[in-house]
């Protein structure tokens, strides 16, 4: 954040100027709206003789490690869960093409791997996730961890692309007249997994921004 903008905001609040008047003056000076909001959000909206600063996002090597492990496990579980469901759909609605014994062996190997990854990664993910949730409940400022914020936005970006790609595949196949049960079930699978992750972390971002 621009130090001059932050200093101006602090001085204006100290002088008793309202937040709406400060925002209007900054807009008149052609400051971008996100920077205006960030400058005002840097100080708590409470009654006190001087502006009270809010806690700023912090960077911790420990947090970086913990959140990297957490989100990596999340990606592993999401991908392998989707792949496992895809295999189950293919088994329930087999293709008209004739499958060979070699293909069946490869599919069985993939299924075993998907189950193995989920069996190991999911409990670890849940354990770390619950520990982080308890830590945030005890100290809400931990929600402002920079690694948490960065990786949350990265996850939103990845899942958004996943959802858009899912919709593109749906439209592409619809235009080609290929609207089979297998395809629809796979589209729903991707939508539920990616949509669930996206919805949760979007809600988490909004909570982080809330006063």
Written overview of the protein:
With 211 residues, this protein is an all-alpha fold. It folds into 2 domains: 3-53; 61-209, no CATH class. The chain is built from 7 helices and 2 strands. It has helices at residues 3-14, 19-28, 33-41, 61-92, 101-138, 146-175, 181-209; strands at residues 43-44, 52-53. The protein has a two-stranded antiparallel ribbon. Strand 1 (43-44) and strand 2 (52-53) form a beta hairpin. Helix 2 (19-28) runs antiparallel to helix 3. The longest helix is centred in the middle third of the chain and has 38 residues, at 101-138. The radius of gyration is 24 Å and the shape is elongated. The two termini are 19 Å apart.
Number of strands: 2
The biggest sheet amounts to: 2 strands, antiparallel
Shape assignment: elongated
- How much helix, percentage-wise, in residues? over 70%
Radius of gyration: 24 Å
Mean pLDDT: 86
Beta percentage is: under 5%
Class based on secondary structure composition and strand pairing: mainly alpha
Order of helices and strands: HHHEEHHHH
Q: How many independent structural domains?
A: 2
Instruction: Report strand order across the widest sheet.
Output: 1-2
């Amino acid at each position: 954040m621009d130090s001059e903008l932050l200093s101006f905001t602090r001085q204006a609040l100290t002088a008793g100027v309202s937040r709406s008047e400060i925002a209007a003056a900054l807009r008149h000076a052609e400051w971008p709206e996100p920077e205006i909001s960030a400058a005002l959000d840097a100080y708590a909206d409470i009654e006190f003789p001087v502006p009270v600063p809010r806690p700023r996002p912090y960077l911790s090597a420990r947090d970086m490690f913990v959140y990297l492990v957490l989100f990596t496990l999340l990606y592993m579980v999401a991908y392998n869960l989707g792949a496992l469901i895809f295999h189950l759909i293919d088994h329930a609605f087999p293709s008209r093409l004739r499958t060979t014994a070699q293909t069946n062996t490869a599919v069985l190997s993939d299924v075993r791997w998907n189950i193995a990854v989920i069996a190991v990664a999911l409990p670890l993910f849940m354990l770390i996730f619950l520990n982080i949730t308890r830590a945030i409940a005890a100290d809400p400022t931990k929600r402002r961890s920079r690694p948490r914020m960065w990786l949350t936005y990265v996850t939103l970006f990845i899942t958004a692309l996943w959802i858009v790609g899912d919709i593109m595949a749906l439209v592409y196949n619809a235009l080609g007249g290929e609207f089979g049960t297998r395809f629809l079930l796979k589209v729903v699978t991707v939508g539920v997994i990616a949509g669930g992750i996206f919805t949760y972390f979007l809600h988490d971002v909004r909570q982080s921004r809330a006063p």
